Amino acid sequence: MKKIIFLIGLLLGLSSSLSGFEQHRIERFFPGGKKFPRFDRSLRIDLPKMSFSRARPEVFNKAVDLNNRGLDELRKGNASVAEKFFAQACQLVPGETGFWNNRLLANRRIQGNGARSVEIAKKVMALDSENSQAAYIAGLLLLNDMQRPVDAIVFLNYALERNPDDVSIAVALASAYDKAGYRESAFDILKKYAHKSTDDPYPFYMLGLQYLEREDYEPAIRAFNSARSLDDKGYSHDAWIRARYYAGQLENLANDCREVLRRFPSVMNQQSLKRILFSLEPQDFRLEEKIRVRITEVSAIERLDFLIKPIPDIRWHQDAKLVKAEIISSRSSSRAQIIDRESDGRLRISVPKNQLHSDFVLKLVHRIKTEPLLGSRIPPFKGRAPQINRLDISDKYSFEDPLLALMADRIERIPGNYVQMATIAVNSGLKYRENYEDNSVSWAIQNPENCDCTE
User: Distance (Å, rounded) from C-alpha 435 to C-alpha 262?
Assistant: First the structure.
């Protein structure tokens, strides 16, 4: 017992004694270990210098009148006309923030005026350094209309610094980070702000996508689930199904997938959901296989035999039968006889001399019935535990490698099916590169960029 306790303690203590290099090797196998670039927050906006001199009363009143006429036109939907009135008001009294704000609103509604709107927003910010709305509008224009996410980040950061409780600004900033490739910065923002949104599913949906990109499925599922209660368009429902599928959490998933397709028939990833549903339902296939044969001298052959490897049965998953074998030529069609099964399982199909032609086709018809066998749907079965000492016939298994033991323990703690989670870990950590060798598991962990099928 003391030995067992000591060994358990040794295994638990290994993680704390790992070097940084070894820790890095372990982390690359696990989704949560993925890291993305962060944005350099040192970038600043170059604001123009603005005049703050007071206008004479008659000049100011004229500017107010122009501003009011602009507001009337804006209410009528005449943004271009309104912009001209606001521009005249700004020219008369260049230090009045309200006139510039209204000019910004009018410009924003004029298609193709993005660059001018950004310049006007900068003038508003120069007049009022605490104006978050002008920076927010400029950021949205740069992000959505002008497709300049890096420039948008600077403005949206400015806006959020001045209004740190505004979830809309935070979500726009996260979107800009994501489009610019700074996904770690997007992730930081969404983790902080998503829960503050009480009536918009999008922040939780974006957070779920960040987790999904990291293949960190449990928190992705929770984020999409939070978004579903507010989502009436289906995008978070679709993502919720996909995240559960990737995680191997398949209980009732077919029914949930069917319901999402029913409620949201035009959902964006409809085809993906249909493929998921297809893989989760029993199927009955008819598969035809054709083998074309040409014989130069038919008279020289007494009998022609084919050895066919049948499609395998897979316990709990696939039942396959060869239901028909047929010889087809331009002159006739007749059934071929399956006369024997070889010791290796192959079927012997014989074509007698009277059925031989110079050009014919052997047509095989298979019937394949499948039941889904994915993730946590693997049925329980009784069996003896594997005897490690029998498996340990080669040092290539590296059973004594402490990093392998740590990886196995970490996979054990991930929710879902162990085999599926282990497959994801190996796929994440090892990169394929032909090495023409047969190396050990320890070698693969130490050389993860250079592994081929043997490893």
Answer: 49
* Structure-token pair, residue 331: 């002159």
Collapse the DSSP code of 434 into the 3-class scheme (helix H, G, I; strand E, B; otherwise coil) and give the result.
coil
Give the pairing type, strands 347-352 and 337-341: antiparallel
Q: Tell me the CB-side half-sphere exposure of residue 48, using CA atoms within 13 A.
A: 12
pTM above 0.85, yes or no: no
CB burial readout 322-352, b (16+ within 10 A) else e: beebebbeeeeeeebebeeeeeeeebebebe
d(CA 239, CA 244): 9
The pLDDT of 135-157, averaged and rounded, is 94
Token pair listed for 97: 């923030």
- Between CA 211 and CA 257 the distance in angstroms is 21
Per-residue pLDDT of 282-320, as tens digits, reads 999 999 999 999 998 888 888 888 888 889 888 888 999
DSSP conformational letter for 1 = -
With CA atoms as reference, report the closest residue to 282 among 251, 323, 241, 254. Answer: 254
Q: Give DSSP secondary structure letters for 301-367.
A: -SEEEEEE-PPPPBTTTEEEEEEEEEEEESS-EEEPEEEEE-TTSPEEEEEEGGG--SEEEEEEEEE
Question: In Å, how far from its chain's centre is CA 145?
Answer: 25
Looking at the chain, the whole-number percentage of residues with pLDDT higher than 90 is: 47
Dihedral of the alpha carbons of 293, 296, 300, 304, in degrees to the nearest 10:
-10
